[in-house]
Amino acid sequence: MKVAWFSAGCSSLVAAMLSDPDECIYIHVADQHPDTLRFVRDASRVLGKIEVLRSQDFSDVHDVLTRVRYVNGPSGAACTLRLKKWVRQEWEKEHWGRHTYVWGYDVEERARAERTIASMPEFDHEFPLIEHGLTKADCHAMCDDIGIRRPAMYDLGYPNNNCIGCVKGGMGYWNKIREDFPEVFAQRAKDEREVGHSCIKGVFLDELEPGRGVNNPVVPDCSLACALAESQMHDAYRPTFYTISFEGGGQAWTRWTPRRCRTHPWRRCSTSPTTPTAPRTSSAGASYADSATRDTAGGGGCAS
Q: How confident is residue 234, by pLDDT bands cut at 50, 70 and 90?
């Protein structure tokens, strides 16, 4: 089975569109910006069903830090391991097999892709953005072109749609968090002192001087590689137009649907809008919620 691990960023959306996965899975953390789930719902108009998993052992980053009493280090961040990796591993226990995983690493993250391959040899891996030579800026431009507004954290000037107050951020990142989300900054500074370890090597947040560090926002920019990849996506997907009427006028919007039904490739997919499903809990304890389904459970309804 081919599984796209959707991170609720523009890069992972484009990677999934270029790879035609059987499943798209997003692991949600409570510390994400509230607009993240809006982006997941919008992405489901393109990708179909996105299954949303959550940790049943830890509620949020603060819960992890204060219970585990560890922030981050050479082995990674404590919250990433417990709120994301452990959740993925629970899913793998329920769906064991030689899966192919699709990752949204861009052309500038080749080393990260190589580390992923080395650390997970029991699975096959695809990196569509690296294969197509796409940068993060390309992916943002492509999301804009298909009519999906990028997550709010990017518009606020952050380079990634990570949790608000990501413990892996640098000085520039944390100084911006201090300005935009002062309550998160204060809580994480308090967490550091309680745990006895800092997010930034060599300095605690309550000692961080304002103005230190840099923070580089992502500016959408479609390169030649972006244009070529967009051409491939247009071949694989077709726009379907709907008009939603409001009092005093109407507004048109576009939903992109696969050209062929995944379960019956010789038929066209239907173009009915996706519908939400109720939350459920797996036998391993992982929660599934805020999902949008395809037209049928088979991965796209067939037109008669």
A: low
* CA–CA dist 5, 252 (Å, integer): 30
Looking from the CA of 283 toward its CB, the CA atoms found within 13 Å total 4
**Percentage, residues of the chain above pLDDT 70:** 76
| Angle between helices 224-236 and 10-19 in degrees, nearest 10 | 50
H helices of the chain, in order, are: 10-19, 35-47, 61-68, 78-80, 86-94, 110-119, 128-131, 136-145, 152-155, 171-180, 182-195, 224-236
Residues 6+ away with beta carbon under 8 Å from 119: none
Nearest to 52 by CA among 14, 21, 7, 103: 7
* 224-246: burial string, b at 16+ Cβ within 10 Å, e else: eebeebbeebeeebeeeeeeeee
In sequence order, what are the beta bridge partners of 101? 3, 125
State the Cα–Cα distance between residues 38 and 65, nearest whole angstrom. 27
Amino acid letter, 209: E
Q: What average pLDDT does this structure show over 158-182?
A: 96
- Residue 26 has which token pair? 């997003």
Q: Are 291 and 50 in contact (CB under 8 A)?
A: yes
CA 62, 64, 65, 66 torsion-angle sign:
positive
Res. 236 pLDDT band, cuts 50 70 90: low
Which pLDDT tens digit goes with each residue over 91-141?
999 999 999 999 999 999 999 999 999 999 999 999 999 999 999 999 999
**Are the C-beta atoms of 75 and 115 separated by less than 8 Å?**
no
Angle at 273 between CA 4 and CA 234, to 5 degrees: 55
